Structures are given as structure tokens and as C-alpha cells.
Write the C-alpha cells for this entry.
Amino acid sequence: MRHRLAAATTLLLAVGLLAGCSQPAAVNDSASADPMGSMSMPPASTSSSNLAPESGGSAPLPGMPPVLSAQDVYAADTPGNFAPAVAGDPYRIYVPNTLSNTVTVIDPLTYKVLRTVPVGNEPQHVVPGWDLRTLWVNNDLGNSLTPIDPRTGRFGRPVRVADPYNLYFTPDGKHAVVMASLLKRIDFLDPHTMALQRSVPVPCLGVNHADWTADGRFFLVSCEFSGDLLWIDTAKERVVSKFSLGAMAKPQDVKLSPDGKYFYVADMMSNGIWELAYDGGGRTPHVVRLIRTGKGAHGLYVSRDSRSLYVSNRDEGSISVFDFATRSLIAKWRLPAPASPDMGGVSPDGRVLWLAGRYNGVVYAISTADGRQLARIKVGAGPHGLCVWPQPGRYSLGHTGIMR
């Protein structure tokens, strides 16, 4: 969540005029390291007025890589299952420091900071491109994306993009999808040049996170400032429906279950994750229940064996572990205080959960075996959506690494 709730209602024209994109000097990081080694709730109300009709069918989105397993959408993300495109990429953690306007690069094997690089104003996330060849720094208030070559570690010249709070890619790789939160729209861009193709106005406040159905035809988007979720047709680039999680809700990260039957949405104010059932055929998901995990539930990360979902509870300094098979919580790990675990990712071998400490200027390395803190690394101010790279998988749907 950003500290911009007040701005969200007064912002619409000003942000698009901001164009102060800094141009950091090229930085190289070609040193090689081997990453290959070793409470029930009633259904939410749904509003479909002035929105596009749903389209049925369950065949995969044309152009999308084939689904490998009907039981596991993350079948390609297992340890060692690297795409040829990432061969030779050094193992690194890229940390956007939102209040310092920098990205810190960490060697995860030594827990040492290698360098800190200036980028644009308010970098929110570091996002792998669909083809795995570029990492994009989302300079939200700088209205730009800074590309990083993960092979060399070189930071390139910023590309002007309006209000890139978060960045995703359609499963067919044809479009980049910008969550332009302040502008109240979702923008579809060329995935390589980032040139604007189409803007879609959204009937909510604070669009920020998303995930796709297994067939790629629809995606679910959270709106943190209005407590809404949007259901969007990928091919038509149209909002199908909007529904509310409640006036006090503040939905954040979104994740699909391995079997594709449920969506999970973190909610900072409800202190848990919403479980939504998806019945297929493009039908709008419906709320099943709220599962209380802890104060400030924020980020959602799938284990490398697709058995668990790690939930970062930012306001109480803990991580809850949710079991997909039983659909129940099985553990809670508490970090040494003070702690504010936010966004991040899982190591390529699945042994370490990396999370940014949003209010403490640190990054946590956490053992996925028992929840022990392995390291606490000092970075810049306001670290947010860090990216673990490389990761197993064939292609990226964006954010900090939703791999399929």
C-alpha cells in the first residue's frame, strides 16, 4: 500500500504531466553465481452495470504457451526448471527503495549488498518481462520504467510510461499491463517498447495487483482504496464485472491456486486472505470466506512444490503458511521485532523466502523449512516489491515474478 490515499481522489490530471525521468549511469554486474544448485462470509455483491458481458469458453488464450498440468498451473516453476533465456543470469536480489529512489542489488549467497543504483521517483516494484530478458523498475511518480539487463546487471535509460505503480504481462506475451492507480485506468502497452496501445478506465480506486486464470482468458484485479475487485477479459481488454469486499477492505496481492479453482486476495484491513471460488468458463469468481492470517496481510507467494502459500502479515511482522490441499493455515512464523515483511519472492531452490521490510529499511531472508530469519540486510528507505532473479518458469506474468 502506498502513502497516497488522499492523493487518489485529486490526482487524475497532474500525474500524466510529470515527466522527470532520471537517467542513471549504466551499471554492470556480470559476476557469475550459480542459482541452479542445490471465518465464512456471504457472497460479495456484484455490479455489472455499464460493464462488458462475459465471454465463455475454457480453451487457452490463443498464443499462450500450453498449460503443462491441469492440477498445477505452477508446474513449470519447480527447482532447476530454468528457461534457456535465463542461462547465465547471475543470482541476485533487486530491491526498489521507494523513498530513496534507488535499487539495491544483493548477492543472496553472501547476503552482501553489491551496489545501489539511482532510478526514477518512487520505484515500487522490480518486474520480470514476459520473455525473461528484461527486469523493469516501476518508477511510479517518475512516470517511467527503468530496464535492467539481468545478464550483465546494466541499468538502461528510463522509458516514459504514465503512473506505472505495478506491471504485468498478458499470458500470450502480446501486451504489458500497467496498473495506473492514480490515473484510475489499466493501460495495455507494447511489451518491448512500452508504447501505449490502449487505456481502459476502471470503476474503482487504487488498481494495484492481479493474477490470471489457468487458461489466461481472464484476470482478477484488486483495488485497494475502494475495496473492490475487477474481473477483466484478457483478449477484449474490457472490465466484465466489479464486486466489493466491503467498505473497510483494502485488497492487495492476488494469487491463483495451483489447481486454478480458487483465487486468494490479501487484505490489509481485514487481516487475512479472501478465498474466491472460480467455476470456470469466464464466470466471475465468488467469495467463499475470509481466512484470518494476521495484521496487515499483504504479499502472497507460492512455494516451489506448489503445496503452500506464504502470506506476509506486514503490520505484525509475521508470515502465515497456508496449505493448498486442505485449504487451511498450518504455520505462522514471527520475525524478530521490529519487522514489516512486505513484497518479495522465493529462491530458485525454494529454500528461502525473500521479503522487503517496508518500514525498517531492510530485506529479510527467511528459511522456508522452519521460518527462521537467516539474514537481515540493510538497504534504502521504504523497500517494496523486490525481485528474486532468476526464477524457474517459462514466462513471466509480471509483478515480482508470477511465473508459469
Notes: Confidence is low (pLDDT under 50) at residues 1-57.
